[in-house]
Amino acid sequence: MFKDNVDGLDNIFYTDLFQGAIVIVYGPPGSLKSGLVFSILSKYLEKSGQFGMYMTVEETTLSHLRNMESLGIGVPDNLMISDYSDIRSRFEGDEAPDFLEMVDGVIKFFKDKEGDNFTTFALDSLGGLYTLINNDNLRARMFHFFKKLRENNLTSFIIMETPRSSNVKGGLGSEMFLADGIIEMGPIEHQHDIHLYMQVLKMRSCHHSRKKHLIDIGEKGISILSPVVN
Q1: What is the distance between the alpha carbons of residues 104 and 144, in angstroms, rounded to a whole number?
Q2: Is this prediction's pTM over 0.85?
Q3: Is 115 part of a structural domain of the chain?
Q4: Based on CB atoms within 10 Å of each CB, which residue in 33, 42, 107, 182 is the most buried?
């Protein structure tokens, strides 16, 4: 998943992620969370020929594709993009189930259709999902959702948007403990300018760097640069 993927990612990950892991990618607005996840999925699926799904609940599929195109990120045919309207349209009638149940249903449909070839999933974003579901007993519901992803053996990326604050880690919920990996992204002052970075805080069963690495956007999309030097 990580090895031989986005340019420069091998400088962070020395061994690869195990199949079925759940990775949370979090950071403030504009920190390239969606771009990084979409780059990883598109490049992986392009090489592997497997099937993946990118579910966006905060913007339309067309808007998301425009954003990815502006970053120089291509979309392979075996990566399906779904938005809220697409998911909702799959459930007929006025008495539609809770949105989280609809997400479960869509995943089950494509797992039945694609079988073991359906290997990757991304949700953009967790905050958007929270606005669409019944928040009663939220921790138990998220535990169940993560459990379903693991049962389906989907390597999953869950995007979380956090406020621009110096203490965002203190506001993160129980999902961070349920996840197998955590990637932080954000702005940093570097050589008298503002750049973006990514840092792997946790990645179970994976040997990786813990340093902050700068991120760049070029003609070929996102690339990972050298570690930040204080």
Answers
A1: 10
A2: yes
A3: yes
A4: 33
